[in-house]
Amino acid sequence: MSPILRICILFVLFWNDKCINSSASLRGVPEWDLLFQKKSNQHQSFSGSPPIHPPRPGISNPLPPGGLSKSPSSKLPPSNSEHTPLAVVDSDAAFTLYHGRNFKVIQNLIFNFSYLLIQQGGDPGARDWNVNISVFQDPLVNFTLNTNSVVGFLELLGCASKLRGVPATFGSASTCVSQLIVQGTIPTFELEGDLFDHDSSTAKPAFQALLGSSNEESNLQNQSNFISFDAWSDRGPLQRAEWIKFLASFFDMEERANDVYNKIQSNYQCLNASSKGINISKPSVAWMTYSMASGIWTFSKESFKLQLISDAGGLNLDSYNMPSYFNMSIQSDVDVFHSVISSLDVVIDETHSTDPSEYTLDNVLASANITDSSNFSFLANKRLWRYDKRVGINNALDWTEGALAQPQIVLHDLIEVLYPSPDGGILDITYFRNIANGESVVNSTLAACPRTDLTSPLVPPNVFLHFHQSS
Length: 471
Ligand SMILES: *[C@@H]1O[C@H](CO)[C@@H](O)[C@H](O)[C@H]1NC(C)=O
Ligand SMILES: *[C@@H]1O[C@H](CO)[C@@H](O)[C@H](O)[C@H]1NC(C)=O
Ligand SMILES: *[C@@H]1O[C@H](CO)[C@@H](O)[C@H](O)[C@H]1NC(C)=O
Ligand SMILES: *[C@@H]1O[C@H](CO)[C@@H](O)[C@H](O)[C@H]1NC(C)=O
Ligand SMILES: *[C@@H]1O[C@H](CO)[C@@H](O)[C@H](O)[C@H]1NC(C)=O
Ligand SMILES: *[C@@H]1O[C@H](CO)[C@@H](O)[C@H](O)[C@H]1NC(C)=O
Ligand SMILES: *[C@@H]1O[C@H](CO)[C@@H](O)[C@H](O)[C@H]1NC(C)=O
Ligand SMILES: *[C@@H]1O[C@H](CO)[C@@H](O)[C@H](O)[C@H]1NC(C)=O
Ligand SMILES: *[C@@H]1O[C@H](CO)[C@@H](O)[C@H](O)[C@H]1NC(C)=O
Ligand SMILES: *[C@@H]1O[C@H](CO)[C@@H](O)[C@H](O)[C@H]1NC(C)=O
Ligand SMILES: *[C@@H]1O[C@H](CO)[C@@H](O)[C@H](O)[C@H]1NC(C)=O
Description:
Helix content is 24%, strand content 15%. It has 471 residues and is α/β, with parallel strands linked by helices. The chain is globular.
């Protein structure tokens, strides 16, 4: 092993002993501490474009004067309902939460939806605003879903018992939620024509709320019970995780959401390696996708992915200064594409597959027109990964469920991917599989739910880095 690679490994192991299994011995720390303190203007930070702040809503006066406050005001008469702890959102969150007397207003700033939640005895006068606002009972007693991006958050909150039905096409990779569906505790229903009909005069089930994502083409937004849950569209790993507070507001679970988010955020920042070891050569990484329909390869510029690589101590491919796609039917495109990927140490292949268990290294070699793997270090060194390791019912990926809600586990995974153990052992990688090593998918729904009560809350694990003894 080259000295540089050894240094990389050691730097990962020593950057923050709070995130390392403390019962392992940490010989040599002072030497590496010195290394960390060196400053360098070669420091590579997040190389993507700055995250775009979602537009603030253009509603000039969305709130009745004096009727709402972001925090409890002593001028307001005491609420006649039980005190509800407020969820405090970060200033750059893509949603806002307002708590009034017996009611709440939640705004989704990505797609400009506003929701009014009225508690028992709440002020119905709050409805008379000149805005498009959907009204819900607070807390919700039941709901349905058409996006599995809510599932990871439901588990952390422990409100899966209020999920009273899902469409038969719904997929989930969650061990516990999929078992609730398979055993019929969460019934399935067939969609007919206009998707989710919430009209109780029909035979179809009626739900107080339908949680969906506005990112997907559908007419769900026109339903009065639609709640647009857009964690998946948000910019950064922690901003995405913070949507637990948005969801919690509909269930009066703000306090738990704050606790869970604080825990995830501090674990994430503890692992965050991006500012450490600045004078050490970092592995070069790209997320890339092949479109089978159009025969082109593209590199991802999605900010949360670039942020994760940067925070894991990797160097993002500068895909801004190259063609936006590579047409594999054109030889010159193939040549440029080959020269770009030959510079990469690690590749994360995001190519969509309807059946991930059938997707292997051979698919990549064929679609990238690669005959000689030895010319590509990510192939020669077997560092070609995918995030479809955990697959569930209807081929749902845990990448869009647990990984969305718990970025601290994703960051831990990526550190292990970028700075592997020198003995080649792979430690505790949850969401990624290495197809260059022939690693296959795991059917995550076949394991038993680790909680006796399948609807009880999941406690987010505090993840830490292992000490690689052999280094
Ligand atoms: C921490 O490391 C020690 C020694 O290697 C091991 O026995 C112990 O199980 C580890 N703890 C955890 C939580 O992994
Ligand atoms: C970074 O490493 C190089 C090569 O080892 C060395 O020449 C240089 O002085 C270092 N820079 C800093 C700021 O430590
Ligand atoms: C939301 O509102 C802002 C301000 O009015 C507007 O610029 C933006 O395009 C809207 N976004 C959507 C998705 O409609
Ligand atoms: C509410 O939505 C309708 C249709 O989407 C639109 O025509 C109307 O201008 C909106 N009203 C406000 C106050 O935004
Ligand atoms: C959801 O709650 C509403 C209001 O309590 C009720 O009318 C409806 O039947 C419930 N739906 C299901 C599927 O439980
Ligand atoms: C949903 O509403 C939008 C705007 O209000 C409208 O343009 C669209 O046709 C509606 N879709 C359906 C399926 O009704
Ligand atoms: C990780 O740390 C770097 C350097 O301190 C910082 O710029 C970056 O924003 C952090 N990541 C997150 C998600 O906060
Ligand atoms: C790729 O190149 C082929 C051959 O020139 C062309 O027919 C095809 O339309 C191109 N595809 C794209 C997506 O540009
Ligand atoms: C793919 O690779 C083969 C052999 O390396 C080459 O002959 C062929 O022209 C390539 N195909 C394209 C479309 O470039
Ligand atoms: C691999 O690299 C060698 C030497 O750089 C070159 O001669 C050969 O054509 C390359 N093979 C392919 C398939 O690109
Ligand atoms: C995983 O197992 C479940 C049965 O528990 C099955 O319904 C599902 O299709 C399997 N998924 C995959 C990807 O094999």
